[in-house]
C-alpha cells in the first residue's frame, strides 16, 4: 500500500513536472502571400490599316529605340522573372529530380563519328572544360591503328610516338574573336584538303563573316574577307572560292569569286538588281560545276558555272515560271534535276527526278523524267555517288532507302522504279525521318544516313552500297548507358548483350525492317507508337502519331502533350527526345499532329495551311486534340499543347478558339503578334515569311491575318489554360511578342492562381550548353506536371 502510494506520488509529481515543462506548440507561420501579378504600363496606340482600326495598349514594348520604353521593359521583365520563380517555387524538388534524370541520359560523345573523305577522317570533338568543339582530322590509315575513346583529344600514338591528329579549327578561340559567342553557319573544306572556308556569326553587326584558313599552317588567309555572306562553294579544285553576299535587307544578290593566294580583288560574277530575286550557290558532288539558283515569287532558274574556269560565265540549264524547289547534280555526262516543278508551270505535290545530257545542242534544253509516278510511293530526297543514286522514299507513313545502280541499266526513260529492281536498305520500325549525311566523298560507295524514330534514339548509319553491309557508327543506348562512337566501336561500358560491328543483309526485298530490333537500340518493348488519321473540319485527314509507355498505358489518368509546327512546309520534328522520357515514364501520352502548313503530306498540304488558309492549321490541331479526348487516348481536361516558333502560333490560336479543351500549354519562342510583325517588321522578313503568313498589303490576306492572330483574338471573360511562354531578346520573334501576349491574356481572361500564365526568359547560351538545356526542359516539364496535378 505504501509502495503504491509512493509510486502514485512520484508519478503525479513527474506529471506535474512534465506539465510545467510542457509548452504549447507554436502556431504555424501564415502561408506566404500570393505573388504579385506583374502589371506593365498601358500606353494605348491606335492603328489603321485598310478598313480596320484597332488599339494596342502594349505596342510600346517593341520600340527598341525608345530608351524610356526599354527601361519600362527591363522593369517589367524583372517582375515577370520573379513572378515565374514564385509560382514555380514549389516545383524546385521535382525540377531537380527531372534535371538529374535528363542529365543522366545525355549522350557523352567525345567525338562526332568520323567522316571519311579521301585519305582523311574528319570529326569534331569537345575538350574537357570547353564550351565549343574542335574540328579535327586524322589519316584513315593511322586511324585503324590508334583509337582512343576516353581521350581522343590526345591524338597521340604511344606506340610510334607520333601525333596523328591535326587540329583544324578551335571554336573556343573563334568565340574569343567574336565576343565570346561562336556560331558557325556553314563550312566547306576544299576538294584538295588544303583550305577550310567557313562563316561565323558577328553578333554585334548581325551578319555572317567569311573566313578562310590554311589547313597546313593553321593561319587565317588574308583574303577573301567578306561580310554578310550567305553561301560558299569551292572551284578550281580548291584554288578559287565562290561566295554570295546579301544586301542590307539580308537578300542574297551578288556572287563573287576569290582566287586563293592571289592579291587581286575578288571578281563579281553575277548580280541580281531586282529587289525580290534571291541567289543561292552550291557545288555538284563531283566538284565539276557550281550551280547558281535564282528565284523569286514568280520564277526559278538554274545556271551552271564550270568549276575549272569560274570566269567563263553562267549557262542557263533550267527555268520555270513559278517558284520551285530544284537541285541539280552531274553524273558521268548527265545532269540530274530533282524538283517539284510541274510541266504546266505550277508545282507538284511531290518531287520528280529528271535528267538531260550535259552537252545538249538544241534550245530550250529537254529534260526527261527518270521514274514513272507511283501514287503509292513518293521520292523525298536523293543523293549521288560515283556508282549509285540513293532514294529516300515514303509509302504511307513508312520511309525506305532504296539504291539504284548508275549509270542506269536502261537507255530509255521513264521507267517504273520497281522494274529496275532497286535494292532496299535495312531500317528499324517506326522510322519518322531519314536525313542523308554530308557524304562528301563522291568516289566512295559508302553513304551515311541519320535514322530518326519516336521510339529509338537517332542512329547514324553507314551503308556499303555494293555489298549490303551496314554499320551503326553512332547511337545512344538508353537501356545500357553507352553510346557508339568513332566508327562503330563502343566504349568500355558497352553491354555485351547488344551486338555491334558490321552486319550484312539481303538487298533483294522490299521488307526493309531489320530482323533484330536490338541491333538498333529500339525501345518498342517499352514504348508503343500508334498512327491515326483524324478528320478535320472540312474532311481533310490529318496524320496523328501517338507514343506512350506500355507499362503505364492502362492507368486511369493519362495526361497528354500534343506537339505541332505546321509552317513553311517543314516536317514536324518526330525524333526521340530523351528529356521527354521523363513524361512517358510518368504515364503521359505524347502526340504529334501533322497539320496543314507543314510538310507531312507534300506540297499541297503545305499550301492548304499557309497565307489566307492558315486557319486550317489551327482547326486541324483542335480536331486532333478532340480526337485524343474522344477516343480516350488522353483523359479529358488533361491535355496540354506544345509549339515552337510558328507552332506556338497554332497552339495559342487553338486556345483562343477552344480554351476549355486545354489544361496547359508550353510555347517556345512563339510567333504571337503577326498583325504588327508583318505590317511593321522590327527584324527583316523574307518573301517566304510573307508567303507563309500572308501579305498584309493584300486586303484578303490582311483579314485572314487578323482572324488567326493569337494576340488579336484573345477571348474575354473566359478561364484560360495555364501557359508557360519561353522567349529571349535575341530570337527572331522577339520577347516583346511574348510579353504583349501574356499581358493581354491576363487583361482579358479570369485570373485563376491554379492556371497561371507565365513568361520565362532564356539566354543565348542555352542553345550551346546541353546542361542548361536540361534545366530549361526540367522547368517546362515540372510546370506541366504541376498544372495537371492541380
From TrEMBL:
The keyword Hydrolase applies. It comes from the Eukaryota. Keywords: Hydrolase, Protease, Serine protease. Its EC number is 3.4.21.-. Residues 17-48 are annotated as: Disordered. PANTHER family: PROLYL ENDOPEPTIDASE-LIKE, PROTEASE FAMILY S9A OLIGOPEPTIDASE. This is Prolyl endopeptidase. It comes from Thlaspi arvense.
